[in-house]
């Protein structure tokens, strides 16, 4: 009993599964490589898998797609939509080269496409990077060779000149290596790489032939269409798909009725279907019979006459700006008068109906949007609806008030560029340069990177304010800029070099203060350079805001001076100015005083010296006369010689017989304490001081001459000479002769 129940349940389950089996057929699977099977590196490649599947059920089928490359599964996706499967290869590389195939599986039914080979040519340029470009002899350089964007198995090689240093293969797009550099000098390094795609393929010889006979399947599908001719859009077509000469049970095969790629119906022995004829839908119908691996197809195509043409949407005016009033017109130019008339056509805007008013059949009025928008319209008659192509309206933007400026620095007397530019406005834009309101030059900008520039020159800084710009991109509207306002550079005039104090009215002496002033006219800022004798002066302490300042002049500061002045427009040079510095006045006076006083001091010294010697001689003579007078008085009037004998020194024994070449002269000061005989002595009063010249006679010699009573005694008859001066002693010039 249990076994019977189990068998019953199994049969019911099988019947349910058989009843639930979906009715579909996989017509074909194709693989496409876009844009081409031979592309260059960097091309965006798409591998497209297209499966044509017809199904009787409305519920979508689950499709499993697989993309193969060189017989390897590289991409899998499950989808329930009939769209093509896309396998993108962005920026294709050489590594993407290979044989591609796609397959589809639906509820156990699997079909694969034919192979197509993709060939990608071109490799990216290798990039070599070094950790250091300067190393010591014996050091190694770390080098990295990169193959930007490449993938797969890559073999890298490093070279010095044409010599290979090292090479290696990696599964990546870069390789780092240590490069030894043995010799000194400059080494030139580079690297290359090779990408391995696959090994070469070798083809085997053909096998022995085997003959197979295949007989044709005699049962064929039959397709009937009514009406078959004189068909217009909107007509109803009756379709019937049957099989002729069925040899097997009808349950073992299926019939499929399709229009183009759309499956209409399916059945076992006969199927029929009614469809509305449309000109834009392919009028090709197909009746397909499938049984196991057997497929039989019958097709028919009918001509459908267009009831009315596809409407065309136009805009007026053709050139519009943001917010302008526009008119959209939707019209079908052609229709079949015997079937419909113009009043049967109903027009409507398919998009953005708000803001538009229907003025008449197919005519709509409204305003443009401030941005780009796509408009479409539709025409409908006898159940046929047709839409126009998309009309893209891109309203232009009115030009804004232009801005006027200068390129670079405007310099008086030189040509410079004036730039006119509007921040907002659709191209093309016409710019015109105005001077005092008078148009000068037009310039039409048609490309985004173009600039409206006008070459001009001015003769004064104020002239630049007379320029303005005018811009327009529609006939009736013009925009004007403000007056040009820019800083104008005036070139420097030739500098004038003058001094304070004025050198033409005064002399410069050491220690005086001097200010050199370089005067120019032109646009600031002005920089000054000072030169003496052609050499630039760099002393910061002498530089001032008005010139070159000498606080205390010296003789070394004399020379030829000139200045250079420069601004952003020019550099000019002054004439040379000679500065002469004289010796200080006090130094001149000192030199003159030294020249005068030195000889005078020398003469005065001589005079004082001889006066001192003369005084000593007079004192010695007076002393000798006094002694003679005293001797005469005390010796009864006898005359006593004034000569005295120099006593010999105890140490003079050895030289007693030697007569000196120049007798020694001694001066003795004599004071007269007693009164003298006025008859013997010249008049002297008081205690007069006289000088006696004593001649030291040789040892042992005696002078017995009696010179009488004298005031001065010339002991040797010689006159002393000092400095070639001849002394005179109180008017007495000669000594008396000696008396025997």
From TrEMBL:
Signal peptide (from-to):
1-20
Lineage, top-rank taxon, reads Eukaryota
One Gene Ontology cellular component annotation? external side of plasma membrane
Annotated Pfam families: Ig_2, Ig_C17orf99
Q: Which residues cross the membrane?
A: 589-610
Looking up InterPro entries in the UniProt record yields: Ig-like_dom (IPR007110), Ig-like_dom_sf (IPR036179), Ig-like_fold (IPR013783), Ig_Fc_receptor (IPR050488), Ig_sub (IPR003599), Ig_sub2 (IPR003598), IL-40-like_Ig (IPR040878)
Residue ranges annotated for the Ig-like domain, each copy included = 402-485, 495-578
Name the record gives this protein: Platelet endothelial cell adhesion molecule-like isoform X4
Write the gene name: LOC114855001
């Amino acid at each position: 009993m249990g076994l019977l129940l189990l068998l019953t349940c199994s049969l019911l389950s099988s019947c349910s599964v058989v009843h639930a089996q979906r009715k579909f057929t996989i017509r074909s699977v194709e693989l496409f490589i876009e844009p081409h099977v031979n592309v260059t590196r960097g091309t965006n490649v798409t591998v497209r898998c297209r499966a044509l599947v017809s199904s009787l059920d409305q519920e979508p089928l689950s499709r499993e797609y697989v993309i193969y490359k060189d017989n390897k599964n590289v991409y899998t996706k499950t989808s329930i939509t009939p769209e093509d499967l896309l396998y993108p290869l962005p920026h294709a590389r050489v590594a993407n080269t290979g044989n591609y195939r796609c397959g589809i599986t639906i509820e156990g039914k699997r079909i694969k496409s034919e192979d197509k080979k993709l060939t990608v040519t071109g490799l990216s340029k290798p990039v070599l990077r070094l950790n250091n470009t300067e190393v010591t002899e014996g050091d190694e350089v770390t080098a990295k060779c990169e193959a930007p964007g490449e993938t797969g198995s890559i073999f890298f090689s490093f070279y010095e000149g044409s010599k290979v240093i090292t090479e290696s293969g990696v599964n990546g797009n870069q390789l780092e290596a240590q490069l030894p550099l043995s010799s000194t000098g400059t080494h030139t390094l580079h690297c290359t790489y090779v990408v391995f795609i696959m090994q070469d393929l070798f083809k085997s010889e053909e096998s022995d032939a085997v003959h197979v006979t295949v007989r044709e399947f005699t049962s064929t599908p039959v397709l009937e269409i009514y009406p078959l001719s004189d068909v217009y859009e909107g007509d109803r077509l009756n379709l019937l798909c049957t099989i002729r000469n069925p040899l097997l049970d009808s349950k073992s095969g299926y019939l499929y009725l399709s229009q183009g790629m759309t499956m209409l119906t399916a059945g076992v022995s006969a199927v029929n279907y009614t469809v509305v004829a449309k000109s834009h839908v392919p009028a090709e119908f197909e009746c397909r019979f499938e049984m196991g691996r057997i497929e039989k197809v019958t097709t028919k195509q009918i001509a459908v006459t267009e009831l009315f043409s596809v409407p065309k949407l136009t805009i007026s005016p053709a050139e519009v700006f943001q917010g302008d009033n526009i008119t959209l017109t939707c019209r079908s130019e052609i229709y079949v008068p015997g079937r419909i008339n113009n009043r049967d056509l109903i027009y409507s805007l398919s998009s953005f109906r708000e803001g538009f008013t229907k003025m008449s059949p197919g005519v709509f009025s409204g305003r443009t949007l401030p941005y780009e928008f796509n408009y479409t319209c539709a025409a409908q008659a006898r159940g046929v609806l047709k839409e126009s192509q998309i009309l893209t309206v891109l309203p232009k933007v009115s030009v804004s008030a232009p801005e006027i400026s200068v390129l670079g620095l405007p310099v008086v007397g030189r040509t410079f560029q004036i730039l006119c530019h509007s921040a907002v406005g659709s191209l093309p834009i016409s710019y015109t340069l105005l001077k005092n309101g008078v148009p000068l030059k037009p310039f039409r900008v048609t490309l985004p990177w173009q600039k409206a520039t006008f070459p001009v020159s001015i003769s004064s800084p104020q002239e630049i304010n007379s320029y303005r710009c005018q811009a327009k991109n529609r006939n009736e509207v013009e925009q004007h800029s403000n007056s040009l306002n820019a800083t104008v550079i005036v070139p420097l005039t030739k500098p004038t070099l003058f001094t304070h104090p004025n050198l033409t009215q005064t002399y410069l002496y050491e220690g005086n203060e001097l200010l050199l002033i370089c005067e120019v006219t032109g646009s600031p800022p002005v920089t000054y350079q000072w030169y003496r004798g052609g050499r630039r002066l760099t002393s910061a302490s002498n530089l001032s805001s008005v010139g070159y300042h000498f606080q205390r002049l010296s003789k070394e500061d004399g020379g030829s001076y000139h200045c250079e002045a420069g601004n952003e427009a020019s550099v000019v040079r002054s004439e040379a100015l000679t500065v002469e510095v004289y010796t200080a006045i006090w130094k001149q006076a000192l030199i003159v005083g030294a020249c005068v006083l030195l000889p005078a001091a020398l003469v005065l010294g001589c005079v004082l010296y001889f006066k001192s010697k003369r005084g000593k001689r007079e004192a010695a003579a007076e002393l000798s006369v006094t002694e003679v007078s005293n001797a005469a008085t005390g010796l009864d009037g006898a005359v006593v010689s004034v000569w005295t004998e120099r006593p010999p020194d105890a140490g003079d024994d050895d030289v007693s017989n030697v007569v000196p070449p120049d007798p020694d002269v001694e001066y003795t000061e004599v004071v007269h304490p007693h009164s003298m005989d006025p008859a013997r002595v010249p008049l002297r009063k008081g205690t007069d001081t006289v000088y006696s010249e004593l001649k030291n006679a040789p040892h042992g010699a005696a002078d017995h001459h009696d010179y009488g009573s004298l005031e001065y005694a010339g002991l040797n008859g010689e006159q002393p000479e000092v400095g070639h001066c001849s002394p005179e002693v109180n008017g007495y010039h000669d000594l008396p002769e000696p008396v025997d």
